[in-house]
Amino acid sequence: MTATHVRTCHHGKRDIVLSSQIATFVKGNGKPIIMVHGFALDHRMWIKQVDELAEKYRVITLDVPGCGSSPLPQSDVTIPSLAGAIMQRIDGLLGQEPAVFIGLSMGGYIGWEMLRRNPGRFQAAIMCDTRAAADSVATADGRRQMAKNVLLEGTESVMSPMLLRLISEQTYKHQPETVELMRSMLLGTAPQTISSLQLAMASRYDFQNELGNFSLPILLICGSEDILTPPKEMKRMADRLPQARFVEVSEAGHMAPLEKPEVVNAEIMSFLQANHFG
Ligand code: MLT
What we know:
single chain, 9-stranded mixed beta sheet, 12 helices, binds D-malate, alpha/beta
């Protein structure tokens, strides 16, 4: 990692740190919360959480390598390599200070790796619209196909059809600013990033049989209309985790924190308080 620059962004006027590898955005004081976004998105997906959480906590959002302002590494990426790079960045900011992890979907895949490799560093975790299982053969094949297609056809042709699968019908009809933000993040992602992240997700580890080893408190949040990581599957994960709470958010799709922030923020705050964080 080389130079560090200070920048401003939508999160406000202070504490924005951009390393040459992983763009990191810090707001608020107090115990740290680390938030990792989903596939082909960036730190802006947490826009509806940051201000409220920052009233009490130090909220650290970031852009996964290749997304937002973070460059894609020259070498192939894997979910463990992304987890390692993010952890290195977090260590640089926090030292060994315990934190809470929050991730959505691909951010959750990265999160399982971070939690497994760094037991004791995380006091609690919140997994939104994600899964612990690896891909089926058919899903992994589909990802490899998309990884090729996007390099030939460009971002828009593969990502435009994704939008409707990511949010609920209600969100699509009634929240034009959410639709616009999603479109801007998805279409702003470079074809090479989409390709590399799809290949990384296709070969990710299956955590299903390890869920029993995650002894920290974990809140699982899922939109009732999530067709990519459905509530049924997240409920099964909750049943296998030693200390889990499962919350289904009605009228939300795969982007529950962005679609229904009032419900999600209230759940996050009460979970953190119940677990003596902050
Ligand atoms: C995401 O939102 O990160 C994706 O749905 C993850 C995936 O493709 O499995």
